Amino acid sequence: GQNIKREWDTRVEQMLSHRLPGSGVFPPRLHTSADGVMLHIGGRWQEVKTASVFETNGAGEAIRIGYFASHCPSNVFGRYWRVLAHQAGMDHCCDVIVVADGAHWIWMEVGKYFPRSKQIIDLCHVMGYVWAVANLRFGTGSAEASAWCHNQSDLLKKNEADKVLANVRDWKPRKADCREAREDLISYFTEHKHRMAYASYLKENYQIGSGVEEACNKNVVQARMKQAGMRWGETRSESILQLCTWYHSHDRQQINRYLA
């Protein structure tokens, strides 16, 4: 794992000095995403950041997926994420799509390292905010809440995020928790509505959910590192993260070159 990490560090240095070799890969389209998952490292819970890059086949299914994970700070992680995308062929691809949730650090790094990408906010994440407001407004689990949410979902899928925002603003709650949820949703939509053109995305066969990234968190990281009672040290956790992501991204027989 330490040998793999040193190779990543070398590539980041090459990228920063504009010496990163060409990928030699020519994908017609690339999707990429990032997220975070909590692991117990160094005596406390820390966020491990994860990234995935993949192509899609004719059916829109993810193929040739590459992963990276680390518990480094987000401003450092963004560099590894950019190298991961480069290795997947971003240097030869004009159609790059970033789909992720609303975490501020993700879009900060996208702005730095994927400025020309098409940016999509995960629809399921958006609807989580919508459902929170609906349950407060109409009652948790009520038919009215369900109907209202489905209506907002339909509007979003028609590129009408402004109408959803107007529907939320029409609600004038008196309770403090309701006002807070309303303001959170208004703020969220104001920040991300330019990433909510779902009708256009679906027409282009873009992914509008971050399911591949969620699977990375669960199957690549948590399945190995978040079993019952697991506690990790700083150095060993980073090494195992490198092993896990490399193992799920490559021909596994090639790992012998790191065993010197």
Concise synopsis of the structure shown:
This protein is of the alpha/beta class and 260 residues long. The protein contains 10 helices and 5 strands. Helix 6 runs antiparallel to helix 7.
Descriptive notes:
The protein is an alpha/beta fold. Helices cover 50% and strands 17% of the residues. It has ten helices and five strands. The protein has helices spanning 2-16, 74-87, 104-113, 123-138, 143-156, 161-169, 176-192, 198-203, 211-225, 234-247, and strands at 30-41, 44-56, 62-70, 96-100, 118-121. Strand 4, helix 3 and strand 5 (118-121) form a beta-alpha-beta unit. Helix 4 (123-138) runs antiparallel to helix 5. It is globular. The chain starts with a helix and ends in a 13-residue tail after the last helix.
Average pLDDT level:
95
Topology pattern, helix = H, strand = E: HEEEHEHEHHHHHHH
Integer-rounded radius of gyration? 20 Å
Biggest sheet: strand arrangement: 3-2-1-4-5
Percentage of residues in DSSP E strands: 15-25%
Q: Helicity range of the residues?
A: 40-55%
Low-confidence stretches: none
Q: How many strand elements?
A: 5
**Major sheet details:** 5 strands, mixed
Class per helix and strand makeup? alpha/beta
Shape: globular
Question: What is the number of helical segments per DSSP (H or I, 4+ residues)?
Answer: 10
Distance between the termini: 11 Å
